[in-house]
Design goal:
about 20% strand; three-stranded antiparallel β-sheet; Rossmann fold; alpha/beta; 8 strands; about 220 residues; 6 helices; five-stranded parallel β-sheet
Length: about 220
């Protein structure tokens, strides 16, 4: 059980720092490695990872598409380029998915503008990327994110999360070069069950975490 997303991020950073081939002795990540948090909650976890490892932080905005009548159950996900990925258990028709994808795309654009402002998007091509979320239930949003990063030329993709379902872990192994999950639980029902405090994260909290991380890195250079 994690106290909150900050606790989860610190524990995830410890696992990343000590893992052979990632951050272990003599095999540190390249200095230009980029940590990307999936908004909203994933950014809070990612901020702790980036701070602990001394790496740059940014965001990778993707949106899940919920099932008709059950918006919390993801049946598809869309990335910032509008690419749609659907789950194997499809319970929605193509018209529904396309309509929801348009709405999701608008929300992605809103979040990018709100979170980054006039700050340029980071360069992905040729870089190692650590893609972080606060938990992985179906894995669809991270699948969409990882595929987008691969299209944009990421040299290596490390997906990292405090907790995941076995099915999500298996699916992500197909698109990630490395997968770091602290707890894989076959009885997973919702990410929030693994946190003592798992409140909604606001846009303001995401912006504050990003600005603090950007300021810290600028001061360190």
């Amino acid at each position: 059980m994690f106290t909150d997303r900050i606790d989860a991020g610190r524990r995830l950073a410890e696992a990343l720092a000590g893992r052979p081939g990632i951050g272990g002795p003599g095999r540190a990540l390249p200095a230009d490695t980029l940590v990307l948090g999936v908004p909203r909650g994933g950014v809070i976890v990612a901020a702790e990872v980036a701070r602990a490892l001394g790496l740059d932080l940014d965001i990778e905005v993707v949106r899940k598409i919920g099932a008709p009548g059950n918006p919390e159950y993801a049946v598809a996900a869309v990335d910032a380029d509008g690419e749609l990925i659907a789950g194997e258990r499809l319970v929605a028709d193509a018209e529904y998915l396309q309509r929801e994808a348009v709405s999701a795309g608008a929300e992605i654009r809103r979040r990018l503008a709100a979170y980054r402002g006039d700050r340029a998007a980071p360069v992905i091509a040729g870089r190692v990327v650590v893609l972080v979320d606060d938990g992985i239930a179906t894995g669809l949003t991270l699948l969409a994110a990882a595929r987008s990063l691969r299209r944009r030329g990421a040299a290596r993709i490390i997906v990292a999360a405090p907790v995941a379902s076995p099915s999500a872990e298996q699916a992500l192994h197909q698109v990630a070069d490395e997968l770091v999950v602290l707890w894989v639980d076959p009885h997973m029902q919702a990410v929030g069950q693994y946190y003592t405090r798992f409140g909604q994260v606001s846009d303001a909290e995401v912006i504050a975490a990003l600005r603090a991380a950007w300021h810290e890195r600028e001061q360190a250079r």
